[in-house]
Amino acid sequence: MPRYGRIGRVNIVVGVTGGIAAYKTVHLVRLLIKAGHEVTVVPTADALQFVGLPTWESISRNPVTVSVHDDVARVRHVALGQAADLVIIAPPPPTRSRRWPPDWLTTSSARRCWRPPPRRHRPRDAHRDVAASLDAGERRHAARPRVHIIGPDDGELTGGDSGPGRMLEPEDIFAAALPFAGPRDLAGLRVTVSAGGTREPIDPVRFLGNRSSGKQGVALAAAAAARGAEVRLVAANIGTEVLAEARHPSIRIERIGTAAELAEAMKAAAAASDVVVMAAAVADYRPAAVEDGKITKEAGGMAAIELTENEDILAGLVASRTDASQTIVGFAAETPRDEEDLLERGRRKRERKGADLLVVNAVGWKQGFEAPDNCVHVIGRTGEVLVRSEGSKREVADAVWDAVVGIRA
Ligand code: CTP
User: Fold this and answer.
1) Residue 335: phi, psi to the nearest 5?
2) Rounded Cα distance, 386 and 269, in Å
C-alpha cells in the first residue's frame, strides 16, 4: 500500500454510475478506507442495479443515499460536495449521455465544478468520427484544470470485444487520483530521474554491480508525478515489484542496463528536462573487455579483471547544461565516521560534480540499501544543509522535491 507522506486524511466523494465496472469501485473504496481516508459513496440509481446499497455502506462505513430528497433540512447533497477534497467518478457515465439525470451524484459533484467526461468505450472497429468526438470531449475536460481523466485501459471489454475502454484497475486509480488532493507545485515541469544500479557485464553470465534497489529513485519519480510533473524514469536493473510503484499516467519508464546506456539515455532526456535527478548508483568502472563466452576455470579462469573508468554522467550533464534554469540534483551514498564527516563528504562531492543540490545519506552493511526508509541531508550550492529528512523513501522524496521547489523559486 503506497504511503503518501504529504497527503493527510482526505475527504473523498466516490461517484458511481451504472456500469459493470462498478464492482471494481468496491475495491477502490476499500483501498481508500484502508489508507485512512473519509469516503462517502454516491451511486446513481442505475449503479445500484450493479452493486447494492448495503455493500457501499459497509465498505465505506458511511450512510449512502441516492435521493436528493433525503435529509433536505441540512441540504446534505450540497454540503457533501463542498466538503470534498476530491471527487472520483468511477466508472464514469456512458459516452452518449450528454446529461446525467438530476440525481444525488450530479447535484453533489456539481459543487466541485464537475462535468462528467465521456467514457471511452470504443467499439472494436471504431470509426474515425467516433474517435475524434471522444478525443474532443477529452480535450474539453482536460481544459478544466481541476478535472483529470484517468484512463481508460486497453483490454477485454464487457461485450466480448476488446480495445481502449476498460476502467483502470482500482490500485491504479488509487495511485493516480489521490495525489490530486495534495500539492501540485511541480505542474508543468519536465523531470528526468535515474534510479537503480548499473550492471557492467564481464561475460554472458556475470556482471559488476551494486546493491541499489531503485526504491528511492522510484519514490522520487512517483512523488514528482503526484505533484504534477511529467516524468521520465530511467531505470537501471530495478525489480518489477519496485518498479510497479512508478505506475502513473505521467511517468514514462525507460529501462537500461549499463553505465554507458545510462549516460546515453540521460544525455538525450536532459536536453528536454527542467529538472534532472541522478539517483542511480553508477558503476565507476567496467571490465576493459567483455568476453563473448563464459569464462571458465578450464580455460584459465579470471584471477583479475582489467577495468576501464566510466564517464561521470552527472558531472557531464552539469558541464553541458545549456539552459541556465535547469536544476540538476546528485545523490551520494557514503560510509562516514559521523554526521559531520557525512556532510563534509557531501559538500566536497557537490562541488566536484557541480550539481545544484546533493542528497547525501549514510549506508553500510545493514543500512540504506533495499530498506523502505531513508535518512538524508540535502546540501545546497553554498554547502548549507537545506533539508534533513528521515522517514519512508516516499517522504524523503517529497522533502527532496521541497528543496528543488525552494531553490527554483
Ligand atoms: N554518478 C554519475 N556517473 C558516475 C558515477 C556517479 O553520474 N560515473 C553520479 C551518481 O548518480 C550520483 C553522484 O554522481 O548522483 C555521486 O555518485 P558517487 O558514486 O557517490 O560518486 P563518485 O564520483 O563515484 O564518488 P566515489 O568515489 O565516492 O564513489
Assistant:
1) -115, 80
2) 27
Mutate to test the pocket of ligand 1, among 267, 314, 363 (most ligand atoms within 8 A of CB): 314
For the domain made up of 4-180, give the CATH fold: Rossmann fold (3.40.50)
User: Between 170-177 and 22-34, two packed helices, what is the crossing angle to 10 degrees?
Assistant: 50
Catalytic residue among 210, 237, 361, 374: 210
Whether residue 11 lies in the annotated active site: no
Report pTM: 0.75
Distance in angstroms (rounded) separating the CA atoms of residues 60 and 62: 5
Which amino acid is residue 408, in one-letter code?
Answer: R
Does domain 190-408 fall under CATH 3.30.230.10? My reply is no
- Specify whether the CB–CB gap between 187 and 401 falls below 8 A: no
Question: CA 95 from chain center: how many Å?
Answer: 28
Highest mean pLDDT out of 6-10, 173-177, 383-387: 383-387
Q: 93, 128, 89: which is closest to 112 by C-alpha? A: 89
Does pLDDT of 136 surpass 90?
no
